[in-house]
């Protein structure tokens, strides 16, 4: 009966007060099952608290709005800083006062009002053709993507994708709107094709000779290396970390927040603290080739082989302030057209 009740809760079929069942916590997640379910299993083994999960590819903020105070959600897991800030801006989450989380998550990777916290880091890299370019020089910067020497040689996914919007937002934070707009115009002029596909598709395009440089998140390289159909794509590129002589490499995050009306608040905080701890952080690193947000946690052997880099130290909540401005500039330069 308890299992049936838990199932009913997640599909909205039970009365709101039913979610108060003891020793449970309800999660709404954009993160995929293969990644988080092993962590939840470990958490349950350690604490006895059962984790009920609703997975989605989109629409979690809208769902929380619709459910209001009757929502069963305790914890929300998502990717990208813009999605975390959206939850906060829409007043769908609440602050969490936890010394454990504050010790595990560096200040630049958490909200200054403690309404969201990063769990993993992923660098926004440039991939260069091994055959036609080689490793980019250490002084290579994102600004260099607009240099005329790369005309017709760069591939990227849609500028409106959250990963690229976050990068553009960081450029605005560093250089202002006017200079960033000029940069976007130069980058667009250097594209080998209209923005399309996902990050892996850009690396494939480099392998096929359609472009010499591609913009993509770091963890995708790990996924391609371990996919027999895509391994040759990964082997055709070097992974480069822009900004090492300047502002550092832009990093985005996956993260978490406690839902505003969390019915199992104490259990929710326990889960959030667990996800920032050594066990879960190590699992993130090994399974999805992401950088642990907690200092001192070992990276996967593959990620370690990519070398060290200096990350941009700009607090992500400041980057997120320029999200709307980034969208506006992308529209003004007609980046995706």
Question: Which descriptors apply to this entry?
Answer:
disordered N terminus; 337 residues; ten-stranded mixed sheet; alpha/beta
Task: Give a brief outline of the structure.
The chain is α/β, with parallel strands linked by helices and 337 residues long.
Helix/strand layout:
Blueprint (H helix, E strand, L loop, with lengths): L1 H9 L13 E6 L3 H15 L2 E6 L4 H8 L7 E5 L1 H9 L3 E2 L4 H6 L12 E13 L24 E2 L6 H14 L1 H13 L9 H9 L5 E5 L1 H7 L5 H4 L2 E4 L10 E9 L5 H11 L2 H11 L2 E2 L8 H5 L10 H5 L2 H10 L5
Parallel strand pairs: 1-2, 1-3, 6-7
Antiparallel strand pairs: 3-9, 4-9, 5-7, 5-8, 5-9, 5-10
Describe the structure.
- The chain is built from 15 helices and 10 strands.
- 50% of the residues are buried.
- The radius of gyration is 21 Å and the shape is globular.
- It has helices spanning 2-10, 33-47, 60-67, 81-89, 99-104, 162-175, 177-189, 199-207, 219-225, 231-234, 265-275, 278-288, 301-305, 316-320, 323-332; strands at 24-29, 50-55, 75-79, 93-94, 117-129, 154-155, 213-217, 237-240, 251-259, 291-292.
- Residues 1-21 have low confidence and may be disordered.
């Amino acid at each position: 009966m308890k299992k049936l009740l838990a199932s009913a809760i997640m599909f909205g079929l039970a009365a709101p007060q039913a979610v108060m069942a003891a020793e449970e916590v309800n999660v709404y997640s954009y993160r995929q099952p293969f990644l988080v379910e092993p962590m939840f299993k470990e958490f349950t083994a350690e604490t006895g608290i059962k984790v009920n999960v609703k997975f989605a590819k989109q629409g979690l903020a809208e769902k929380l709005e619709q459910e209001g105070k009757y929502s069963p959600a305790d914890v929300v897991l998502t990717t990208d800083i813009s999605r975390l800030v959206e939850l906060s801006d829409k007043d769908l989450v609440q602050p969490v006062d936890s010394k454990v989380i504050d010790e595990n998550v560096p200040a630049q990777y958490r909200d200054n009002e403690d309404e969201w916290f990063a769990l993993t880091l992923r660098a926004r890299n440039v991939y260069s053709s091994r055959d036609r370019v080689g490793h980019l020089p250490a002084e290579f910067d994102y600004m260099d993507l607009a240099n005329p020497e790369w005309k017709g040689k760069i591939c990227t996914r849609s500028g409106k994708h959250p990963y690229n919007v976050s990068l553009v937002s960081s450029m605005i934070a560093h250089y202002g709107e006017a200079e960033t707009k000029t940069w976007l115009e130069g980058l667009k002029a250097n594209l080998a094709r209209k923005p399309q596909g996902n990050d892996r598709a850009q690396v494939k395009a480099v392998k096929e000779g359609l472009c010499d440089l591609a913009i993509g998140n770091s963890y995708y390289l790990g996924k391609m290396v371990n996919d027999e159909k895509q391994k040759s794509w990964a082997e055709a590129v070097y992974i480069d970390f822009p900004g090492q002589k300047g502002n550092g490499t832009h990093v985005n995050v996956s993260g978490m927040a406690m839902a505003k009306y969390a019915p199992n608040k104490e259990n929710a905080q326990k889960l959030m603290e667990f996800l920032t701890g050594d066990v879960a952080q190590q699992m993130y690193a090994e399974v999805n080739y992401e950088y642990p947000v907690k200092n001192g946690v070992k990276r996967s052997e593959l990620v370690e082989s990519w070398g060290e880099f200096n990350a941009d130290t700009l607090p992500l909540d400041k980057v997120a302030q320029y999200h709307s401005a980034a969208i506006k500039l992308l529209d003004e330069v007609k980046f995706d057209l």
